[in-house]
Specification:
The chain is mostly beta strands and about 230 residues long. The chain has a single domain (about 20-220), classed as 7 Propeller (Methylamine Dehydrogenase, Chain H), CATH 2.130.10.10. The protein is built from no helices and 22 strands. The strands form 5 sheets. It has a 6-stranded mixed β-sheet, with no helix packed on it. It is globular. Keywords: Transferase. This is Glutamine cyclotransferase. It comes from Caldimonas brevitalea. GO terms for molecular function: transferase activity. InterPro entries: WD40/YVTN_repeat-like_dom_sf.
Length: about 230
């Protein structure tokens, strides 16, 4: 299904195209994990933040392969070597082999942070109610750039130079591509009724992995082809 609607962001000049999100697979829920707060992808496994554990999932068969005990109440990211995890008002840098927290930096939202991803040598942090995305220095937590959007931010990821974020307000949830300079909405993928996005990560190919909040599920959503 594809249709056109007018997005009301002041920076939007043309209506953003709207598509139904194509969910290609669901994973979970898993024992002891009654919600998913964030997700990332390390090139082989999907990691799901379940509150007290990061759970690695084999995306081929959906089976959990290992877990790390750690506080993980919001977004998760992977920089190619380390995991990063929002925990309350900080972001922990974690050794994925041992689960050891190697360093911590302050989270820019001081506890209201949501999504997290890694790109361009920076961490990108979603702010839920402030409807913002911050680019921050991964060493200090200093804010380098602020992008405003017009919906609650519940996940953030980059895919082939495109900035996408999840949003979830009431019963409506979407994955949105936005202009990284103006915040204007460029494309919208509407999730089916009853499904929300709590964490978002590209696999570097044609899929988004989405946390499913209190459903305890992770969903794989097909990413539209690069224009």
């Amino acid at each position: 299904m594809t249709r056109k609607t007018q997005d009301h962001h002041p920076a939007s000049v043309h209506p953003a195209p709207v598509h139904a999100a194509e969910i290609v697979r669901e994973y979970g829920p898993y024992p002891g994990a009654d919600r998913v707060n964030g997700v990332t992808h390390d090139g082989h496994h999907v990691w799901a933040a379940t509150g007290t554990q990061l759970v690695a999932i084999d995306p081929e068969n959906g089976q959990p392969t290992r877990s790390l005990d750690c506080a993980c109440d919001a977004g998760t990211a992977f920089d190619g070597t380390h995991l990063y995890q929002i925990a309350e008002a900080r972001i922990d840098k974690i050794d994925p082999a041992t689960g050891q927290v190697l360093a911590s930096i302050p989270a820019p939202g001081h506890g209201s942070d949501s999504g997290l991803t890694w790109a361009e040598g920076s961490l990108w942090v979603g702010q839920y109610r402030d409807r913002k995305i911050y680019q921050i220095d991964p060493m200090t937590g200093a804010v380098l750039r602020t992008i405003e959007t017009n919906r609650y931010v519940t996940g953030v990821t980059w895919a082939e130079g495109e900035l996408w974020h999840g949003t979830w307000e009431g019963d409506e949830s979407e994955i949105r591509r936005i202009d990284p300079h103006s915040g204007a909405v460029l494309e919208r993928l509407q999730m089916p009724a009853g499904t929300g996005v709590s964490g978002l990560e590209s696999d570097g190919a044609q899929l988004f992995y989405c946390g499913g909040g209190p459903s305890g599920k992770v969903r794989a959503v097909r990413r539209p082809k690069t224009r």
